[in-house]
Amino acid sequence: MADGRVPTWEEVAREHGRFLYTVAFRLTGNEDDAQDLVQEVLLRVRRGLVTYQPGSMEGWLSRITTNAFLDEVRRRRRRPVVALPADPDQVVPPSPSADVALAASALPENVQAALADLPDEYRAAVVLCDVVGLSYEEIATALSVPTGTVRSRIHRGRALLRKVLSP
Amino acid sequence: MSEHLDDRLSALLDGRLDAADEAAARAHVAECPACAAELHAVAATRSWLRALPAVDPPTGFYEHMLGRGRHRMPVGLGVLAAGAAAAIALASMSAPARRVKPTINPLVEDHVVSASLVDDPVAQLSPIVVPTTVFVSTSTTVPPP
Ligand SMILES: [Zn+2]
What we know:
Shape of chain A: globular
Number of helices of chain B: 7
Distance between the termini of chain B: 63 Å
Bound molecules: zinc ion
CATH topology of chain A: Butyryl-CoA Dehydrogenase, subunit A, domain 3
Oligomer: heterodimer
Order of helices and strands of chain B: HHHHHHH
Strand content of chain A: under 5%
Largest interface: A-B, 44 and 40 residues
CATH architecture of chain A: Up-down Bundle
Number of strands of chain B: 0
Number of strands of chain A: 0
Helix content of chain B: 40-55%
């Protein structure tokens, strides 16, 4: 915000609604979870649960959205459902036949599907870097990890995506 | 030959290496087919990700939320209060068509859809689908109805 004021949740919805929904959708991978996540973000803004830091509005919103997303991920993980595999390579689904994959590999829906299969922390880093366009430093702040970890997660995320999209 | 570049390849693509490291990385890629192939692959993925389009929320998604939030914002769909009213709220929020406006003239509704999210008119037109008392803040997790 130019005036340094914390935006209201209504301003966020009105002026950044599409951006917010896009980030939420790329992080969660489906509409229902994206809508829940957007609602949670607006709730946090409305309740003043997020500290405003001067800088880009999109960076600020991305950070809140990613934190809310990862909070939910961790909450779900505490339930004994599915643990994150120690080796991220294990979560890569079987590749489709090479000719199909090569023909369709860059279609947005295929990229989105592959993105949804990434381990959550990798997906968060990749979305913040390549979908939102944040710097490594901004991503490090958002995820509360060192920039070296950001670099590693971005690279591994991209490499895993490539494996799925065109073996 | 030095060890493979690994995540320095993404740093190279993102312009994150200083001049000396970048020169070293480019020299390595020129001599190492494995890193050259990985650089090519990661660059492709990176460009696909960056080409992903923006995603629009369902029609009326924010209008609905803003209109209702003027009274009281729900805690979140996963933690709504139990009961039939919550079930209605949940259904109305997860159905493909978000808007439930049986009493509103279609022309007015079209105007709302086409207009940008203007504060007051939307607030006046947005229906209260569920009694506001449903949205009393609570942090308790509720079993499905
Ligand atoms: Zn190499």
